[in-house]
Amino acid sequence: MENILLGIPLAVVIVDDIMVSGSNGVEHLTNLEEVLKGLSQHGLHLKQKQCAFMENEEVYLGQKIIGQGIQPIQEKVRAITDAPSPKSVSEVRSYLCMINYYQKYPLNLSTITEYNDK
């Protein structure tokens, strides 16, 4: 599917999902039209009940996608910051895996993981 949509601005394929955007409503609709044409030319169809059009924000793969960019979901951040201190090597590994997903966000991880230094 990536090859079908190659060259369409702000159209991204992730596994079997397609995300389409634009800097404004007109550009968004133009990009969406190009995506729908490309899919149609290759005999591919979308299930309308699985589609969301012209959304201001979307939660996808544990992240909130909005016009200003991508943000972590606050409930997930709270789960990290409120997690109890790990008591074993296995729990430390689990905790590090949990925070690794959100490492690209400035969550002040040095203070969250401060107990590891003590």
Sequence-ordered SSE layout with sheet pairings:
Layout: H1 2-5, E1 11-14, E2 17-20, H2 25-41, E3 57-60, E4 63-66, E5 69-72, H3 74-81, H4 89-100, H5 109-112
Antiparallel strand pairs: 1-2, 3-4, 4-5
Please supply descriptive tags for the structure shown above.
38% helix; elongated; 5 strands; 118 residues; 2 domains; alpha+beta
What helical percentage do the residues reach? 25-40%
Sum up the overall morphology in one term. Answer: elongated
Oligomer: single chain
What Rg do the Cα atoms give?
Answer: 19 Å
Euclidean distance between termini CA atoms: 50 Å
Q: How many beta-strand elements?
A: 5
Q: How would you state the average pLDDT, rounded?
A: 83
Q: Which sheet architecture does the biggest sheet show?
A: 3 strands, antiparallel
The number of helical segments is 5
- Biggest sheet strand order reads 3-4-5
The low-confidence parts are none
Domains, number: 2
Q: Give the strand content.
A: 15-25%
The topology string of helices and strands comes to HEEHEEEHHH
